[in-house]
Write a structure and sequence with these properties.
The chain has a single domain, classed as Porin (Beta Barrel), CATH 2.40.160. The N and C termini lie far apart (about 40 Å). About 25% of the residues are buried. It is mostly beta strands. Strands 1-2-3-4-5-7-8-9 form an 8-stranded antiparallel barrel.
């Protein structure tokens, strides 16, 4: 058993040394909304809400064309409801941790997909300059799936677009009740990576 552990440790160390690791920062805009059978409020459908998203990333090159990219992002999400000229904004903020498998084409284009877990930090409902805390009505953890593409320049800069599909309901319903509201939307942003040969 001890020999297996030591062999596994040396294998992991060797893999880490051989792998090309890059660190980076990214920032951009979210265009999010709510979906699901219970997303409407008094017959009104949710519209897209614009918010900021940004944070850090680590890109671990597994081979010439494939890499693994975990990220840590602060993400402003939510939805907007409009009726007779009045807008009601529901803003939810998350700390998101996506882990993405990337296919990297030598031309610079890449495609990515993978799961994401989000930790709710705040939820506020606002209208006419007034706001109220509604965090208790939301689950503390949200699961989603990301699918994206972009272009990486040789100097470390790049642009990317991603769609996040909500997998679980974000509403914290009472026991015995089921409320189906899922968050989802697009992210457009820029990033910069350094290290690993850049």
């Amino acid at each position: 058993m001890k020999k297996i552990f030591i062999l596994s440790a040396f294998t992991l160390i060797g893999f880490t040394i051989q792998a090309q690791i890059k660190f980076g920062v990214k920032a951009g805009a979210n265009f999010t909304s709510f979906g699901g059978s219970d997303a409407k409020i008094e017959g009104l459908s949710p519209k897209y809400k614009v918010g900021f998203a940004g944070g850090g990333l680590v890109n671990i090159q597994l081979s010439e064309m494939f890499s693994l990219q975990p990220e840590l992002l602060y993400s402003m999400e939510g939805a907007t409801y409009k009726s007779e000229g009045q807008s009601v904004h529901l803003k939810t903020d998350y700390i998101n941790i996506p882990v993405l498998a990337q296919y990297n084409n030598p031309s610079g284009f890449y495609a990515e997909t993978g799961p994401q877990v989000g930790f709710l930090t705040s939820a506020k409902l606002s209208a006419d300059g007034n706001s109220m805390d509604v965090k208790e009505g939301f689950k503390k953890i949200n699961f989603s799936w990301g699918l994206g593409a972009g272009y990486k320049l040789s100097n470390g800069f790049g642009i990317g677009a991603r769609y996040n599909l909500g997998l679980t309901s974000i509403a914290d319903a009472d026991e015995g009740e089921s409320v189906n509201i899922k968050t989802g939307g697009f992210h457009l942003g820029v990033f910069y990576t350094f290290g690993g040969g850049n």
